[in-house]
Known about the structure:
- By secondary structure, this protein is an alpha/beta fold.
- The protein has a domain at about 1-95 and about 350-385 and about 390-438.
- It is about 35% helix and about 10% strand.
- It has 18 helices and 13 strands.
- The protein has helices at about 20-30, 65, 75-80, 85-95, 105, 110-115, 125-130, 145-155, 170-180, 205-215, 235-245, 285-295, 295-305, 315-320, 375-380, 400-415, 425, 430-435; strands at about 50, 135-140, 160-165, 185-190, 220-225, 230, 250, 280-285, 350, 365, 370, 385-390, 420.
- The strands form four sheets. The chain has a six-stranded mixed sheet, with helices on both faces. Strands 6-12-9 form a three-stranded mixed sheet.
- A hairpin with a 2-residue loop joins β10 (about 365) and β11 (about 370).
- α12 (about 285-295) packs across α13.
- The longest helix is centred in the C-terminal third of the chain and has 18 residues, at about 400-415.
- It starts with 20 loop residues before the first helix and ends in a 5-residue tail after the last helix.
Amino acid sequence: MAGDSVFNTNNHGPTGAKQSRKADDxxxxxxxxxxxxxxxxxxxxxxxxxxxxxxxxxxxTPQKYFGSERVVPNxxxxxxxxxxxxxxxxVREMNVSYESQSFCQQTKACENFIKTKGYVMDSLSxxxxxxxxxxxxxxxxxxxxxxxxxxxxxxxxxxxxVHVDGKTIGNVFNEFFCIVRCFPNxxxxxxxxxxxxxxxxxxxxxxxxxxxxxxxxxxxxxxxxTGQEFPLRTNYELVKILQMFNGSNDGEGTIKRANKExxxxxxxxxxxxxxxxxxxxxxxxxxxxxxxxxxxVAADFLTWVNKTSIPDxxxxxxxxxxxxxxxxxxxxxDLETDVGVRKPFLSRFVNWEGLSNRPQCHxxxxxxVCVFGVGDLSLLARRPEFFTNKFHTDYQxxxxxxxDQLIYNRTRDEYYQRLGFDLQYYEKLPHIRNIxxx
Length: 438
């Protein structure tokens, strides 16, 4: 079985010695979440989970949300997460798709749509209610995949901004719109931008959504997503981690491994900013979002990166790794996320092609990124990151649906307090100890 330990978070370079197959198999056996569709798996000794047979303390009627199972037809997700070769082979050869009717038809009665799809329309815990999260979701195709993502992260206390690429044709746009209209806290972005890879247009939809979301009070953190991603954490787990972050930001950052030719322009960066190479994917406290939208330094730097190549991989990474700017939650330590995994990048797990000691991709590579298949599920179940990229609904779609089942089951079992989430790994992160005060 291929794959890294849950504690080996670096997906951009050397990740340390591989565990033995025997140790990995034992780790996997203990890490896979409880399933009702197929065999039961003991998660009690996982580094991130432990069983705790208790009763819930928050007084709701969970049957309203967890009364039915999230079943994947003709697929035993439990065996797939257990890396069962026979089941993997069977599902790969099935080549099934899970088509549904038009969302504009399904959402003519929003209440019925929400109930049928199994959206959780309650905060489920006091902690979650008091710690709302804001999301931007950038999409351009596959409303079906977007709906699965939205359902997996939806809570009524959170806020969601959906940007549909300006190139997306009308009937597809309408499908997105019909989903969004059913939820008062899910809004379409105020502007539509035609997104082109390598240009500032990759970054502008997130900035548009940031501005839109700032009109909504109380949310604590901002997370940006695309429609081909999926959560590795439940909402409850994200809240527990972000509470511990206490204003810390998460974003990839490197100077040593930067493609410095991207910044080969005559004009120096403004305000003595040291450009940092990172990812557009970030987890930011609210004050950072306010800084991005309202501060002249951020505006000046946005103008500068617009003259560079791949600006989306420079803008956020540089702002939160230049502590002299005084941006709340910025990292003051050694930002390198490569050697020794000094500062793990948790916002996103991406399995890149061609990097040393990378986990095996059991799906396929598209533009050097692993599109996950059913053979990758055991790896994904053990990762500590917040979200993962990417899935395609036209390729081994059962992988996405099994991940949906996993997050649903974890949400249910955490609600019932059958399952505890261990924060020990996150407590030791340098993110928390070495930041600009919030």
